[in-house]
Amino acid sequence: MDYLEASPRSKVAFIAITILLSFLTIYMVYQRLFHPLAKYPGPLLASLSNGWKGYYIYKLSLHEQLLNAHIKYGPVIRVGPNDLHFWGADAISPIYKSGRQMAKTEFYDGFTAFKPNLFGGRDEDIHALRRRQLSHGFSQASIWKMEPLIEGQMKILIEKLEKLAQNQEVFDFKHLIAFYVFDILGEVAFGRSFNTQISEVAPEIPAISDHILLSSLLGTFPFRFFFKSIIPMLPIPRLRQLIESRGKLKETCADCVKTRRQQASTNRLDLMQHLLEAKDPETGAKLTDLEINSEAIAGSHSTSGSLSLLFWHLLHDDQALKRVDDEIRDTLGDLPDDKISYPIKGLESSLNYTGVCIQESFRISPVFTMCLWRRVLNPGGVDIDGYNIPQNTNVSISNYALHHNPKTWGADTEDFLPERFLEAGGKTMANNLLPFSIGHRMCIGKHLAMTNIWKTLTTLINKFDFHPVSAERRVEMESSGIGEMRGPFLCTVTMKH
Predict the structure, then answer these.
(1) β-strand partners of 102
(2) Under a CB-based contact definition with an 8 Å cutoff, are residues 361 and 453 in contact?
């Protein structure tokens, strides 16, 4: 049957299909040949749709795919219809140190659970206000005052490790650290411990991971509010679980804030108290409950991921571990019986080799792998790493790809070599690490994270010997934007004293 003999309904369908195919053909030809970014190489699907990024975010492997794409295509790759991803360290400053000339993109809208927070907010004036309100609470001086809260949780961790050593039990070091850090997060950010070290049950930990995954997916696709509304109707249980996890996390945050509000005035020194008391030093404006909820939910498991990976690298490198152990013992001495941990003051400045081991772990296994997208606003475009990038292009450079660029780090990027930071050029290399981002949007929680890492590493290395069960020399990561070690980290432990 030819077109003239077809029914009216068939004719309409034929015309609709023809129009659709014509539109798709024109779209593909434009994207591949005439779009301002058509000259940049990259995966074919990525030039046509954000689905390429979204798929690998969902598979928790976008960081690996970006690195592989750079190895295949070169220093600048097209990873979306309007998105360019850079590999070289020279791209850092023009992207992340250019202030308001490089605006945050709609990607960050996906992270709004209550109201836009310090990380997800795109309005620069509101960001500046929020930064002023929170800066005191997150300062190093304030974090020092919270050391007793951290040490209370470390005492529980040490007691658990002593029991594991006595019984010679095999345990998952990754889970142990996750419970410990989550209870610290509860103590300092939510105003109460979640007691997960005791119960060894923490449904909030996977809920935080789900929240980050959902946020990254929502931020990647257009029409995110429509996409969010149809997720519960899709026949994909995992996507529905992400929505449910975010809801549970919101309830937890709201309950913590409400409970603290109802308490009588307290002298407890923690971030929740700072959030409740925070005000703009210029205007006196305070945070609303919704704004406090938004900042509380921004806390994540990045510190536990970093600690687990740091211990993995050290426990699989006998020479580096011995140097760290000797440096701690020779510089700080053994911990007295009446001390839980080493005080944070002076640790970083006095333990040089331990510090470069932390840097090398940040380099080879950065847990914050998220693409922090910025949009070029300058009408004349901007020069990035030798390329003139046109206005309205989205640009990014992510940690994992940057930290594995042989042009910056040498051919041994897959090897754990802390000594690279002690050699000539080591200081320049250190400046190319971005564990907490850079510029005026740098992570405000840096001091808290580093305090946890330094105190935990030095104390546990001094008191215990850890013995990995697996002889595997490589560790793999999975990441929705904030990553962790893939699989368990099985160990046994013995006491040193």
Answers:
(1) 376
(2) no
Phi-psi region of 333 (alpha: psi -120 to 50; beta: other; left: phi over 0): left
- Name which of 486, 459, 462, 465 is nearest 475 in CA terms: 486
Instruction: Compute the distance between CA of residue 257 and CA of residue 316 in angstroms, rounded to an integer.
Output: 42
Cβ-contact 196, 182 below 8 angstroms: yes
**pLDDT tens for residues 364-382?**
999 999 999 999 999 999 9
Closest by CA to 216, choosing from 236, 232, 234, 239, is 239
DSSP state letters, 16-31: HHHHHHHHHHHHHHII
- How far are the Cα atoms of 120, 276, 445 from residue 111, in angstroms, in the given order? 6, 22, 17
Query: Which residue type does 141 have?
Result: A
Q: Is the pLDDT of residue 301 over 80?
A: no
Phi, psi of 388 (to 5 degrees): -90, 115
- Report CA 455 to chain centroid distance, whole Å: 21
How much is the pTM? 0.90
Q: Angle CA(110)–CA(114)–CA(115) in degrees, nearest 5?
A: 75
Distance of CA 252 to the CA centre of its chain: 21
Q: Is there a contact between 446 and 416 (Cβ–Cβ < 8 Å)? A: no
Tens-digit pLDDT profile for residues 320-341: 999 999 999 999 999 888 889 9
Q: Scanning the structure block, which residue is given the tokens 């002889």?
A: 471
Which tens digit of pLDDT belongs to each residue from 140-191?
888 888 899 899 999 999 999 999 999 999 999 999 999 999 899 888 877 7
The partner residues of 464 in beta bridges, in order of sequence, read 495
CA angle, corner 400, sides to 472 and 247, nearest 5? Answer: 95
Computed from CA positions of residues 61, 66, 69, 70, in that sequence, does the dihedral angle turn out positive or negative? negative
491 three-class SS: strand
Who contacts 214 (Cβ-Cβ below 8 Å, separation ≥6)?
A: 110, 242, 243, 245, 246
The helix (H) or strand (E) run that includes residue 103 is: strand 102-104
Residue located via tokens 């659709």: 20
Contact 459, 154 (CB under 8 A): yes
**Do the beta carbons of residue 417 and residue 409 sit within 8 Å?**
no
CATH no., domain 35-495? 1.10.630.10
Query: Do residues 171 and 140 touch, judged by C-beta distance below 8 A?
Result: no
